[in-house]
Amino acid sequence: MTRLAGDRAPDTKAMIRVDQAGEYGAKRIYAGQLAVMGNRHASSGEIARMAAQEDVHLAAFDRLVAERCVRPTLLMPLWHVAGFALGAASALVGPKAAMAVTAAVETEIDRHYQAQRDALAGDDPELEGMIAQFQAEEVEHRDSAIAHGAEQAPAYPLMSALVRAGCRAAIRVAEKI
Question: pTM of the entire structure?
């Protein structure tokens, strides 16, 4: 796609920064869930599988941060604690609540990754391809969480709305800080 005069190229450094932060946060959410649930629940294996995919996503963004000299978000210590706390708290409520958090997070990440792909519009094929692959996997995580009872969690609509709003706020903040 050709940009018109005056159109601004996407800020790929901000994209990489926020995506690295998001994948790190997802890794910490799953770590908190597994710390509470262990392997005692049917969904524990599915959470471990999704966590392993998040590790791959994080490693890819870590590589891009280094290769493209992107400053990581200064909020990694916050994501470290907040992600683990969200995961642990949801698992304490129960496996369906843990899955509800996953469904909510992945719904927002799907929207976020699509917006990035739309903004890139062919300007950075490597980044756009990586985002497309990871987006498909995040959608699969969301669908799996729903199949594992996310929508049956206590106060699901409220929990989902709060987690999604938190994700949107975290995305905006990580782009800048």
Answer: 0.89
